[in-house]
Design brief:
The chain has 424 residues and is α/β, with parallel strands linked by helices. It contains twelve helices and 21 strands. The chain is globular and about 70 Å long. Bound molecules: pyridoxal-5'-phosphate. Pyridoxal-5'-phosphate binds next to helix 10.
């Protein structure tokens, strides 16, 4: 079978390593399923991204929705990144990781009044507004708090990012942002409100985008709007292009940050402002794997099945998007390949990690590595079937650190109680 090696996950003597640590050692110490991340991968990807745009005034805000582990957030913040948060919960987590809200963007298509207040009280750098109604609410709440709220409107440039429909966000049919046709009028109305500082224009056209052309098309449209708005007297300090940069899960050949910069920097140079980026997946996905033990193998007259101890509750992407994650044994044996469905223990046929996948014959007790699991993995995990969410381990060279242990059954009950009156 084909083996997927990412920068920091490689085979030595037929054994998978993360940096200097064998995957088997992590499974032995922490049990399975278990998430394993490489600090070096995160660091290298962040540096590669920011260096590619070093010619221009810019700042990278790590999209914490892709991986909101406190230590992952802190790794990026310590490198100089700001943090993009998408809810009061993510704001809370980023603060717990030691990030000053002045270094945060607050995004989200449906913020509640409580979340907006939280963002204003914490003095986040920019609050995104996704409708005129939201801008009016931010204005009112800022007034109540005696503050001026810095806002950027998210504009929907109506560009096809050529990605999975569930993660495409910049088409007119999608729920996100304001329409580019209404942009000038909406900015002007909001700019006249007393408690708003309308300081930025923002886009995010989708995720797992592997071609540069949708970015070029969208940035060109947005740059025209930016120039029109500033010539009309609106003082914009930020132009935010969002995230969405794609990665290799299977055989995709995404652009590099350098290639993206080559196309976009000339456009950015025509704008007198700071350029903001919000990458998530491209900084984290291939810096993580989910290790899972094979529980059983079986076969019927149609299919081979490998039943693993990881499920859709641990890694949801295959079930909801039909997303591809390469799966390979953590130890390579000289055996034949089979075609199998790799499935989890949850009572749903939708609980699979891979369908009709070519994989070396595996035996119960052996370890599988589900690749590219550093983004949209643990953050989407759930407790369905009263399963405990897995631990997260970060490797730094020859050291491994548990940043979060496996949930206990007590965690699952939290403050749930038996109400005696209900049972009389
Ligand atoms: C507003 C916003 N910014 C950034 C991101 C990060 O996207 P990605 O992980 O694809 O880079 C997302 C993802 O949904 C988003 O909604």
């Amino acid at each position: 079978m084909r083996l997927f090696n990412s920068d920091c996950f490689t085979y030595r003597n037929n054994e998978l390593y993360c940096e200097e640590i064998p995957a088997a050692l992590i499974a032995e110490n922490y049990g399975t399923p278990v998430y394993v991340y490489s600090k070096k991968f995160f660091t290298d990807r962040y540096k590669e991204f920011t260096e590619a745009f070093s010619e221009i005034n810019h700042r990278v805000f790590f999209a914490s929705k892709s991986n909101f582990n406190l230590n992952v957030i802190k790794i990026f913040a310590d490198l100089g990144a700001g943090i993009d948060v998408n809810s009061a919960g993510e704001l809370y987590r980023a603060k717990k990781a030691g990030v000053n809200p002045k270094d945060m963007l607050f995004s989200g298509v449906g913020k509640t009044a409580e979340e907006i207040k939280e963002a204003i009280e914490n003095n986040v750098l920019i609050l995104k507004a996704e409708s005129l109604g939201e801008a009016h609410l931010i204005n009112k709440l800022a007034g109540d708090l005696g503050k001026i709220a810095p806002i950027a409107f998210r504009v929907n440039p109506d560009v096809n990012p050529e990605t999975h429909p569930y993660i495409s966000t910049g088409l007119a049919e999608n729920k996100f942002g304001i329409s580019s046709d209404d942009t000038i009028a909406i900015f002007k109305e909001a700019d006249a409100l007393p408690n708003l500082d309308v300081c930025g224009i923002d886009m995010h056209i989708g995720s797992q985008i592997t071609k540069i052309s949708p970015y070029v098309e969208a940035v060109q449209k947005m740059a025209e709007l930016f120039l029109k708005l500033t010539s009309d007297g609106i003082e914009l300090k930020h132009f935010d292009i969002g995230g969405g940069m794609g990665i290799t899960y299977d055989n995709e050949t995404p652009f590099t940050p350098k290639e993206l910069a080559k196309e976009l920097v000339p456009i950015f140079k025509t704008l007198d402002c700071e350029i903001l980026f919000e990458p998530g997946r491209s900084l984290t996905a291939n810096g993580g794997v989910l290790l899972s033990e094979v529980l059983y193998t079986k076969k019927n007259n149609q299919k081979n099945f490998i039943v693993a101890d990881a499920a859709m509750t641990d890694l949801l992407r295959p079930s909801i998007y039909g997303a591809y994650h390469h799966i390979q044994p953590a130890k390579i044996y000289d055996r034949n390949d089979i075609t199998a469905d790799i499935v989890g223990p949850v009572c749903e046929s939708g609980d699979f990690l891979a369908k009709d996948r070519e994989i070396t014959i595996s035996e119960p007790g052996e370890l599988l590595s589900i690749m590219s699991a550093g983004a949209y993995g643990q953050v989407m995990a759930s407790n369905y079937n009263a399963r405990r969410r897995p631990p997260e381990i970060i490797i730094d060279g020859d050291k491994h650190y548990s940043t979060r242990s496996r949930e206990t059954f007590e965690h699952l009950l939290f403050d749930e109680v038996i109400v005696d009156d209900l049972h009389r």
